[in-house]
Amino acid sequence: MHLRRTVSFIAIATVLSSCASIKMPDMDFIKFPEFKSEAENIPDYPKVEDAPQKPKGLRSAEKWDQAAQDIMAKKDSFSDPDLVDPKSDAEIVREMQRLRAEADAYKKDDPQ
Fold it and tell me: Rounded to whole angstroms, how far apart are CA atoms 66 and 85?
């Protein structure tokens, strides 16, 4: 157990020391001609004083929560009519035939 901790500590120390010894090149992108013109043409940053004011009349978090709970209560009170009064297979087939006939009549009435 102690050997595992010691080996883990040595491995972590080795990784961290190797990362610290890597020298990263100094990449100043503004010196590159591709970026120089864009960097020079950056508009001024906006000032804090110019920031828009907070809108008035916003709902509080409690009002948002209450509105969400009201919507969820309405959703939970919904009941599927087919589950209340399930149709038999014969009724479903008759309804499909009726709807198919209605769609065919609509297609026949189409002037194209």
Answer: 33
Residue range 89-107: average pLDDT? 91
Chain mean pLDDT for the chain? 80
Distance, CA of 69 to CA of 71 (rounded, Å): 5
Separation CA 34–CA 30 (nearest Å): 8
Global confidence as pTM: 0.30
What span, in angstroms and rounded, lies between the C-alpha atoms of 77 and 85? Answer: 17
Q: What share of the chain is helix, strand, coil (3-state, %, to 5)?
A: 65, 0, 35
Residue 20 has pLDDT above 90, yes or no: no
